[in-house]
Design brief:
Layout lengths: L1 E11 L4 E8 L4 E6 L2 H12 L8 H11 L4 E10 L2 E8 L5 E5 L1 H11 L3 E3 L1 H7 L1 E2 L5 H13 L8
Parallel strand pairs: 4-7
Antiparallel strand pairs: 1-2, 1-7, 2-3, 3-8, 4-5, 5-6
Helix pairs in contact: 1-3, 2-3
Length: 156
């Protein structure tokens, strides 16, 4: 397993499909995952520090895990099958409980619970991309986009 950082979310044009972009903490590969608009908004809210008046579903799940003394230890992206990513929530004091989840929901929850996001080497080998130096300016443009985007931009 490799630890990933959440670079952010953006909308892919012309399809208007949101993507969450992850990057290896100790490596060069990026992992783009196409996600739904609701999950993109939840991730963007948390990254931008937006606190809605009422808890979102991911806030509720974090609070429920805390109330049950079952901390989220990690999120692990464990498989890529037929172009669909699969993730597990690793829960509990010793991480003995594993619950299958969509990566987008798992990432939104991990951000709220300050839990690491990890990815299986085989998934990164298959779907990870290296952005050449000449395309680093595109990553910088993406970061600038993230500073300007509002969660409302993901609403359908």
């Amino acid at each position: 397993m490799r630890e990933l950082s959440v670079v952010g979310v953006r909308v892919e044009l012309p399809t208007n499909q949101p993507i969450v972009l992850l990057r290896e903490v100790e490596g060069d590969r990026y992992l783009p995952i196409w996600i739904g608009a609701v999950e993109a908004t939840a991730i963007a809210y948390e990254q931008q520090g937006v606190k809605p008046a009422r808890p979102l579903t991911h806030d509720l799940l974090r609070d429920l895990l805390e109330a049950l003394s079952a901390p989220l230890r990690a999120v692990e992206i464990v498989e890529l099958r037929d172009s669909i990513f699969y993730a597990d929530l690793v829960i509990g004091e010793n991480g003995a409980i594993r619950v299958s989840a969509r990566p987008s929901d798992a990432i939104a929850l991990a951000l709220r619970a300050n839990a690491p996001v990890r990815c299986a080497d085989k998934v990164l080998d298959e779907a990870g991309i290296i952005i050449p130096d000449e395309q680093e300016d595109e990553v910088e443009k993406f970061r600038e986009f993230l500073e300007q985007v509002r969660p409302e931009d993901f609403a359908s």
